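INFO batch 0412 | record 1 of 1 | parsing
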Amino acid sequence: MHFPAYAHQPNCRFNSDKNASHFCRLTWALDSKNTIGDSQRMTLEIYTDDSSHSAICREYWQIGGDGAFSKTISEIAKTYKMTTTEVNKIVKANCAFFSPHIFCEACEEPYQFEGRTDFTSKALREKWTCQDCKTHIATTALEAKHNCVTRHAQAALSKPIDPYTMSVRQLVSLAALSRFGADESLTYIHAFDSIRDNELTPSTEYSIAIIKELYSSKLLIVSPNSDLGRITLNENGGYSFYMSEVEFLLPHPNPAGFITAIEEDLLTPGFFEEHKAELEFLAQEIALQECLAFLERVLMEHQLQYSPGEKTFLVLNKGLESYSVAQMCNFIWRAAKDAAAFYIRNRVSRDHAAKTVVGSIERQIERASANGWSVTAYRRNYDHPQSVLSRTLYNTVLKTDDGGFSKRISDLFQMPTRPPAVDDSMSSPDAPDNLH
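INFO prediction complete | emitting tokens
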């Protein structure tokens, strides 16, 4: 794969528009009473042959022995019968005032003052870099980043990955990521943060974890066409970045053929039977993430926050052994509603109220199981859409319509062959009241 060189248009260096026929340079030394410093020689360059404009420039920048300007701008305007704004425009257009003792650290061009206020605030300044040099330095840094990323990408592409050596988890995850963010030609995958109209997985955190996992397995390569401002060069010759902010290349010089091979492998008749255990493990993981994402969403609706830990994972996984994700959402929704009521009724802290949710979910699961209750399942809505990873696994590989949401995971994998398609919209009960 060919990567074009980083292109830029260099800016011109400092270049005053001097016309030799009417250019003059005036220099003078300020005595020890001035605010600039001892024996500093200030330079005024005038670029006009208009005598009145030339005089205005001299008077504007003239400094007395006490270091103060000899005349105010108002006095100059009155002398030449014009406004102070007109004086400033004439000075800006026809002269340049600078000191050779204040210069660019990179190219040694003198600092040119924009006006009196600029002169007063920057006269004592010793270190300065002109805009052209800043641009050059920034451009050089971008070129270095581009070259570094290109070098690593070319090295990775010289050792293409064979899709038939990938694990089931990697195949499903990379297929999902490609569906989620690949460009039309399958040349690269857009930066995660730039995609707003879809969800790779049930939560952002899980999505980033999947991307990081694929990158660590060398199944994703940072693209040199990424926003280089998001990449930081390291002293060891490498670079660092955030997984959600860069574009990725697929690990093969023929990315379209690579993804096609993965998609075909997922559809192979014997794929389900051969990899049932790995697929079930991934399905259980997605189911847990669905529950966690829903828990976070309903708590936020009640302005409650909670950081789930091992206890939460244990309770949710235990519940998923007996109930579907849709039924677990019922328990979660009611627990969040009760926590919000507890917060208002007992005037406890939001943190205290949020921490009651996991215990409430656990108690609901135990009571429903002990009494053999039929638990109403939650229906998806626009706030809780099916993720691309879920569609890839359940719809493509398992041939169910979001089966991992409406069915128990164990039920999907107890069948001797790939499950037949199920019309879940006909079999799922209505959602609990106010469950939106």
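INFO post-check: The chain has three domains: 24-128, 134-266, 271-427.
INFO record closed
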